[in-house]
Amino acid sequence: MKVFSLQGKKAVITGGGSGIGLGIAKTFIAAGAQVLIVGRNEEKLIDAQRELGANCSYKAFDVTDLDKVPNFVTETETSWGQVDILINCAGTHLKKNAVETSDSEFLQVLNVHLLSVFALTREFSKVMIPRQQGVIIMISSMTAVMGMKQVVAYSTAKTAVVGLMRSMVSELAIDNVRINTIAPGWIESPMLHKAIGNDLPRKTKILSRIPSSKFGQPEDIGNAALYLASDAGKYVNGVFLPIDGGAAGGF
Q1: What does the pLDDT look like over 116-163, one tens digit per residue?
Q2: DSSP 191-228
Q3: Which residues fall in a coiled-coil region (predicted)?
């Protein structure tokens, strides 16, 4: 089981203060990693750091502040240490019909889920390439697999992330920097509750399409990320991995 160990590794997890990002942080720390959780809400990060313990640090940073991403990467490597793993998990949600979604709203979602992911992946790749090692994990969505109402911006960004991964894999694999993408299904998280908490028909429809009739847990994504980040997944590169309880196959 040593191939699943992250002992001695350092992982940056954007959106690590809650939900799926927090679930990944818990799993990585249990596997021996030191984790830096990143997000905009410092209060939330402090609470998460207390929960995660001594092997967790935090940094308040808005990933959509693209001009500051290069400095963020440099400062992180200088003050916190060499980053072995990047998890792009920061997220936001917009529930709105396509014809009612403005250009600025669409762009705001893309900034969080796509443009920041590219900027962070690009800048961390620059320091991973000379070391000839590194792991980057994107977080996509099942909306990249199936059409869903009222998530046009989110779906577009999460689909584009897959193309981003494939293109960068073709460039970075030669330098032993691996990039994979996890597509969570419906996972218990603040974002899920925001999306369906007041929409019982939507919740009922979703559960009816999951063979097990239950939502996943953040740790389910954490375990998948652990496999991809550890030596257990050292020959896995450019994979799009749904973790959805069979929802895509249950239609």
Answers
A1: 999 999 999 999 999 999 999 999 998 998 888 899 999 999 999 999
A2: HHHHHHTT-HHHHHHHHHHSTT-S-B-HHHHHHHHHHH
A3: none
Q: State which residues of the chain have pLDDT below 70.
A: 193, 195, 197, 250-251
The closest alpha carbon to 61, from 16, 107, 25, belongs to 16
Q: What angle do CA 138, 74, 40 make, to 5 degrees?
A: 55
- What residue ranges define each of the domains in the chain, with the CATH number in brackets? 2-242 (3.40.50.720)
Cα torsion 12, 44, 114, 195 to 10°: value is: 140
Number of helices (H) and strands (E) in the chain: give both, helices first.
9, 7
Determine the pLDDT at residue 10.
Answer: 98
Per DSSP bridges, beta strands 85-88 and 10-14 are parallel
For position 25, what pLDDT does the model report? 98
Catalytic residues: 154
> What is the SS3 assignment for 19?
helix
The amino acid sitting at 18 is S
